[in-house]
Write a structure and sequence with these properties.
This protein has 678 residues and is α/β, with parallel strands linked by helices. It is built from 25 helices and 24 strands. The chain has an eight-stranded mixed sheet with strand order 5-4-6-3-7-8-2-9, sandwiched between helices. Strands 1-10-17-14-11-13-12 form a seven-stranded mixed sheet, with helices on both faces. A five-stranded mixed beta barrel has the order 20-21-22-24-23. It binds one DNA strand of 9 nucleotides through residues 100-102, 128-129, 144-147, 149-150, 171, 173-175, 267-270, 299-301, 325-327, 329-331, 346-349, 360-362, 404, 412, 416, 471-473, 501, 503-504, 566, 569, 622-626, 630-631, 643, 645-646, 649, 651. It is found in: Inflammasome; Nucleus, Nucleolus.
DNA sequence: GAGCACTGC
């Protein structure tokens, strides 16, 4: 194996252009969280942001909308809410700080609460799904962006809040993007009565967009505590990024001290596991002069305990090499990374509103993502980033990742906007507009589900649509739940919808395939994946959620626990809506009939040649290998979703009668599907 | 005939 790659030294990278300068003293570096012998008040004063405190408070007092750009480690997220509170700004209400992720909301609340020397849930609290740690005293509230959006459904002016801080706005999550519009609207309508202060916090991106959106709001810059990172580009275009990554890993491995860990960004589970095997193989055959190597894979579907291995410090004389998906870009921060190897690739979903198809494909990252990856090398000390592409290639990357709202199905978002009584969803003030086609496709889908109707050229919610909006679910699943009383199977549908709301309750370790197969056989239903999941859930309840049972049956107990929580939340909503909850017991026909009424748009028909055609788009589709139907050929099926990878796969299938589909949406099937004979 | 980036309500 040739271990050389043309990696010329490139420019030094120092992100951002700070407005509030600060001398850097590396020796004074303090931990962001965790145990420290330094008193907390002292720690607060050593944060880069502290020197700008007075200026900041004065500016924030005057301004109604502010864009705050802060580098990693500036302390903006923990300090700004406290500064506001200490200065008496917004004391008439609550200061809300949104986060894209639950763990961030929870740990930030815990940290700030500790800094304020108060009990979590009193002055400082948090609200995430299933957990509300706040009280009447709470003045500083961390929450997920989705949670604030859900609260807005009940109070679209967000009257409890005096300040809303949208943190990590550059990530442009679906929820943050919708919140932009909701908050701007609330701010406008509240300006004479109870003004709403808005602070948008972001990394060094999208500044102009944010500022323009809030009527040219001023932009304040904060310096952080990022260390300098050297960047290397390849001299030539790499045709095989995996090979290039492998070479880079071992080049570093042979040259750098063994305590310097390496983080490699790859695209998916399979690729990572294959690369891990190759790395371990090569490492075994290196000369004794070379350090040892421990290879750690990291991706979301990995069980929790195995994910935790990235935090284990490697033994002395041993180098840790982490092979990760983009989960290490934002969600998991690994300390001690000296080298980042960036392949420049990512696996991501793209959405085509014409076909309604989501395509999962390996593609180029954006510049913003490249910087994010690079930044992972300089968190505690200076670092090095090897970019496995040329500088010319980098210059051609898109500058920003396309916001989620422009690459997903908008049915839920549009339903929420309608529930927020947005008069004309096509004209909603999105910070980045989705295409009119995808908005129209969403309205059409809601129309088919009976959630909306046209009145005087306006799209408005029906009574059913209003109820649908109260569930934290995709509209098709809310619809199935709301129809379930007609089929006397609400308990079963609640269970199934909850099971479909989590990643997967099935654990499939690749090297124990035969065991998995035989353990699972007893649950398999000839009626499809939904019914199979239902029987697994019933068995799980019968053994009182026993963990050993889960292990023996290759059931992910953590996800199963989550299913239980989701189910009880959905059940509560049903009860609030006054629904009667019945069980169909052994009658699974009714359950499938009910599912057909929610998922009729996702139906496929067996063709004479043994292939399947989607009834909606008439495109060829295939049964996903994870389905219990993989080796059989039912005539008509409904599926949860289509996933385009190597083929267009249907995931999670349920056997249905053609007749049920027609009953569910007679008009739709008459219009769309002449192919199907009644 | 053979496979699943990442969040969140």
């Amino acid at each position: 194996m040739p271990l050389e790659l043309d990696l010329p030294p490139a420019k030094k990278f120092k992100p951002g252009s700070p407005l509030f300068a600060l001398n850097k003293k590396p020796g004074m570096l303090l931990p962001r969280t965790g145990i420290s012998s330094v008193p907390i008040e002292v720690q607060r004063k050593h944060l880069p942001i502290y020197q700008a405190r007075t200026q900041l408070i004065n500016r924030l007092r005057q301004l109604q909308s502010t864009i705050l750009i802060g580098e990693t480690g500036s302390g903006k997220t923990t300090q700004i809410p406290q500064y506001l509170y200490e200065a008496g700004i917004g004391r008439q209400g609550i200061v809300a700080i949104t986060q894209p992720r639950r763990v961030a909301a929870i740990s930030l609340a815990a940290r700030v609460s500790e800094e304020k020397k108060s009990e979590l849930g009193k002055l400082v609290g948090y609200t995430v799904r299933f957990e509300d740690v706040t009280s009447a005293e709470t003045k500083v509230k961390f929450m997920t962006d989705g949670m604030l959006l859900r609260e807005a459904l009940g109070d679209r002016l967000l009257q409890r809040y005096s300040v809303v801080i949208l943190d990590e706005a550059h990530e442009r999550t679906l929820h943050t993007d919708v919140l932009f519009g909701v908050i701007k609207n609330a701010q406008e309508r509240r300006k004479d009565k109870f003004p709403l202060k808005v602070i948008i916090m972001s990394a060094t991106m999208d500044v102009d967009l944010f500022s323009q959106y809030f009527n040219n709001a001023p932009v304040l810059y904060l310096e952080g505590r990022q260390h300098s990172i050297q960047i290397f580009y390849t001299k030539q275009t790499q045709s095989d990024y995996l090979q290039a990554a492998l070479i880079s890993v071992f080049q570093i491995h042979q040259e750098a001290p063994s305590s310097h860990d390496i983080l490699v960004f790859l695209t998916g589970q399979e690729e990572i596991e294959a690369m891990a095997r190759t790395c371990r193989d090569i490492a075994k055959h290196l000369p004794d002069s070379c350090p040892q190597m421990t290879v750690v894979p990291l991706y979301a579907s990995l069980p929790y305990m195995q994910q935790m291995k990235v935090f284990h410090v490697a033994a002395k004389g041993c180098r840790k090499v982490i092979l990760s998906t983009n989960i290490a870009e934002t969600s998991i921060t690994i300390p001690g990374i000296k080298f980042v190897i960036d392949t420049g690739m990512v696996k991501a979903k793209r959405y085509n509103p014409d076909s309604g198809l989501e395509v999962l494909a390996v593609q180029r990252i954006s510049k913003a993502q490249a910087w994010q990856r690079t930044g992972r090398a300089g968190r505690e000390d200076s670092g090095v980033c090897y970019r496995l592409y040329t500088e010319e290639e980098f210059e051609k990357f898109n500058s920003m990742t396309v916001p989620e709202i422009q690459r997903c199905n908008l049915a839920s978002v549009i339903l929420q906007l309608l529930a927020l009584r947005v008069p004309n969803v096509l004209a909603f003030d999105f910070i980045s507009k989705p295409s009119p086609d995808s908005i129209r496709a969403a309205i059409e889908q809601l129309d088919l589900l009976g959630a909306v109707e046209q009145k005087d050229n306006q799209v408005i919610l029906t009574a059913l649509g209003k109820k649908m909006a109260s569930f934290p679910l995709e509209p098709k699943f809310s619809k199935a739940i709301l129809l379930s009383p007609e089929f006397h199977c609400t308990e079963e549908v609640l269970t199934i919808v909850s099971l479909l709301s989590v990643d997967s309750v099935l654990y499939n370790p690749p090297n124990r395939r035969d065991e998995v197969h035989s353990a699972r056989r007893k649950f398999i239903s000839s009626e499809g994946d939904h019914m199979t999941l239902l029987s697994i859930y019933r068995a799980f309840k019968n053994v009182n959620a026993n963990k050993d049972w889960c292990r023996e049956n290759f059931v992910n107990s953590r996800n199963m626990a989550l299913v239980t929580e989701i189910r009880s939340q959905l059940r509560d909503i049903c009860l609030k809506l006054g629904m009667t909850l019945e069980s169909s017991r052994m009658d699974t026909g009714n359950v499938r009939r009910c599912l057909a009424h929610g998922l009729f748009m996702n139906a496929a028909e067996l063709q004479p040649d043994g292939s399947y055609l989607a009834l909606d788009s008439h495109q060829p589709v295939a049964i996903h290998p994870s389905s219990v139907f993989f080796n059989s050929k039912p005539s008509y099926v409904i599926y949860n979703e289509l996933l385009h990878t190597s083929k267009c796969y249907m995931r999670d299938l349920c056997l249905v009668d053609a007749e049920w589909l027609h009953q569910a949406a007679p008009e739709y099937f008459r219009r769309k599907l002449r192919v199907v004979k009644s």
